[in-house]
Amino acid sequence: MAVAAPPAPRRMPRGGPRALLRATTLATALAVVPAACAQPIGPPAAGAGAPPPAGATVAASAAGEVDRVEVPPGLADPEAGPQGSGAGPSGAALGKYLAARTAQYHNDIQAAAENYAAALAADPDNPLLMRRSYYYLAAAGRFDLAVAVAQRAVAAIPGDDFAPLLLATDAMRQDRPDRAAALLGELEPRGLNGLLQPLMAAWAILGTGDLDAALAALEPARRLSSARRLADLHAALMALLAGAPERAAPLVDAYLEAGPPDNVRALELLAMLQVRLGRVAEARDLLAAYAAAGPTPPSVMRLADRLGREGASAAPDLVETPRDGFAEALHYSGLMVNQGQGSDTAIVLMRLALAVKPDFSRARLAIAETLRRMERFAAANAELSRMDTADDPSLDYIVQLYMAENLENLDRIDEALARYDSLAADHPDQVEPLVDKGDLLRRAERFEAAAAAYGAAIDRMSEDDGLLWPVLYRRGIAHERAGQWDRAEADFLRALELEPNQPEVLNYLGYSWLDRGEHIERAVEMVQEAVRQRPNDGYIVDSLGWGYYLLGRYEAAVTELERAVELRPQDWTINDHLGDAYWRVGRRTEARFQWERALSLEPDPDTVDVITRKLSEGLPPAEPITREVRR
C-alpha cells in the first residue's frame, strides 16, 4: 500500500452556497407557476430569439466580449440614407444602438434604455428603435417616456403587439378603463397575449361596470388548459369585487377542486376570497395544508397566524379595485415568463403592474429577485430600498436578507455582515441570517468565525429540524479548514447520524480521511456510496479514484480519475491526482502531461513547488501504509 506525496488539499463543497437552506425566503414566495402555452412578447433579451430585422450585422465589443448584433435598416451605412439619398441618420445613432445592445448583453437595463432612446432621437422614424426604446424604457421604470414612444409606435408599426399593452396600462393608471378595454380589444390573442390580453381586457371591462362582459372576456384564457384555473381565480375576484359573492363561490370551488394553489400569491388571494365569502375555517385549512406540504414563506405563516387570532377581520383586501386586478394579471404573467430567457420581459410586466399600483410590493420584490438572478446586485438593492414594508414584517425580513446578500455579492463584506447581525438580533426565530453569515465568513477564509456563526444557528435549531444536518456539515467544513479536525469530524459524523448516506457528507468526510491517511477502507466505502448516488459528479468520482490510489489499487485509480477529469477537466487537483496515478502504473509521459496541465490551471500557491518537483523528479517509491479501520 502507498500514500501520495504530498496529500492533495481538501476542498470546499461545490454548488450554490445556499442551495440547502432556502426554505423561508422568496424562492418559495415567488414560486414560478406552471408554464402556459405562450411565449414572451415584445422585444426579447439579447440572444433570446428576436425576429431578425433587415440589415447587416456588426460586432459590438465591450469589456473584451463580443456580441453579434443586428443593425436596423438605414443604420448599416451611416452616410447612406434611404435609397442613397444621403439624408440618413448620423453615426451617433449607430454608436448608441451598438452601445444599447452591449448594455443589453450585460443585463444593464438602465444603460440599454438610455442608449436606445438616444439612438431613436438620432433616427426618430426607425421602427426597430421605437420598439426597443419603449420596451427598455418601460423595463427601466421610465414609464411616461415609454408611453410617449409607444404612442408613436402604434401608428408607425402595424400589428405591434406590445405597445398597446403599455397604452392600455397608462389608460388604467389614468382611470380610463373604457380606453384600456378598447386598446386591448384590438390585440390578437397570440403568444403570451393569448393569456395576458383576456386577463387585462377583463379587468378593464370590469372597470366600466359590466361584470358579465368582463367574465365573457376571460373565456379565451379559460380555453387554455394551463390557464383555466387562473381564469377561474380572476373571475372569482371580479365577481366578489362587483358585489356578486354567489357567483364567486362556485369559481373558488372549481379552482380548488383541481388541486392546491400553484403559487404563493394565488394562495393569498384564495385565502382572502374564502374569508370574504364567510369561509374563515376553510381559509385556515387552506393555509395549514399549504404549510404541511413543504417550506412555508413568512408571509403565509403571518397570514395564518392573523386568521387564527383575528378571524374574518384578518385577511387583507388584496384586490380593492379593477386597477388592482389589472396589476395582479400583469404580476402573474411576469412570474410565468420569468423562466429561461424571459427575464427582461418579466421585469417589463412587473413595471406595468407598478404603474397602475405603485404600492404593489410583490411586483417590486419580483423585479429585485430577477435583477439578482441577472447578477445586477446594485440595481436589485436600489429596488429593495424603495419598498415600504412597514405593514408587513415578514416581507421586511426577506427584503433585508436579500439586501445583505446583494451587498455580499458586491464585495461590501463589512456592510453585509452588519446586516446579517442585525437580522439575527431582530429575528431570534430565524437561522438563515446566521447561516448566511457563516457562509460569507467561510468564503472569506475566516474559518473560526464561520464556525461560530454556524454554531449560533445550530443553537436555534431543534434536534428534529430537517435543516440541522446541512448546518452541521458546513460547520464541520469550517472547523476542518481552521485546523480543528476533532471538532470537524464530530460534526460530519453527527450530520450522518441525522441524514445517513448523504452523498456530500460521505464524500467530504471520506475524502478528508483519505487525505489524512485514516480509516482508508471505510473512507473508500463511503466514497463508493457517494459515487453510486452521484455518478456524474467529477469531484466525488475523483475522491474514489484517490481512495483507490491510497490503497495501492493504481489501475482502478487511473480508471476513476480519467473519468473524473472528463467530468471536470478544469480542476487542477483532479489533473494532479491523475498524473500521480499515471506515474504509478508506468505511464510517465502522460503523468508529466497531467502535472503540466495542473500547473496551467492555477493551483494553490503552496502546491506549485510540489508539482514542479514532481515534473523534474517524479514520485518517490511507494511506501506501505498502516490501515486502521474504525467501524
Describe this protein's structure.
- Residues 362-464 form the Ancillary SecYEG translocon subunit/Cell division coordinator CpoB TPR domain.
- Keywords: Repeat, Signal, TPR repeat.
- TPR repeats lie at residues 469-502, 538-571, 572-605.
- Helix content is 64%, strand content 2%.
- The chain is built from 32 helices and 2 strands.
- Residues 1-89 and 627-631 have low confidence and may be disordered.
- The protein has helices at residues 26-29, 91-105, 109-122, 127-139, 143-156, 163-173, 177-185, 193-207, 211-217, 219-222, 228-241, 245-257, 264-276, 280-292, 298-310, 322-337, 343-356, 361-373, 377-384, 393-409, 413-426, 432-443, 447-459, 468-481, 485-498, 503-516, 520-533, 538-550, 554-567, 572-584, 588-600, 605-617, and strands at residues 57-62, 65-70.
- The protein is globular.
- A two-stranded antiparallel ribbon has the order 1-2.
- α3 runs antiparallel to α4 (127-139), α5 (143-156) packs across α6 and α6 packs parallel to α17.
- The two termini are 20 Å apart.
- A hairpin with a 2-residue loop joins β1 (57-62) and β2 (65-70).
- The chain is mainly α and 631 residues long.
Secondary-structure map:
Elements: H1 26-29, E1 57-62, E2 65-70, H2 91-105, H3 109-122, H4 127-139, H5 143-156, H6 163-173, H7 177-185, H8 193-207, H9 211-217, H10 219-222, H11 228-241, H12 245-257, H13 264-276, H14 280-292, H15 298-310, H16 322-337, H17 343-356, H18 361-373, H19 377-384, H20 393-409, H21 413-426, H22 432-443, H23 447-459, H24 468-481, H25 485-498, H26 503-516, H27 520-533, H28 538-550, H29 554-567, H30 572-584, H31 588-600, H32 605-617
Antiparallel strand pairs: 1-2
Helix pairs in contact: 2-3, 3-4, 4-5, 4-17, 5-6, 6-7, 6-17, 7-8, 8-9, 8-16, 11-12, 11-13, 13-14, 14-15, 16-17, 17-18, 18-19, 19-20, 20-21, 21-22, 22-23, 22-24, 23-24, 24-25, 25-26, 26-27, 26-28, 27-28, 28-29, 29-30, 30-31, 31-32
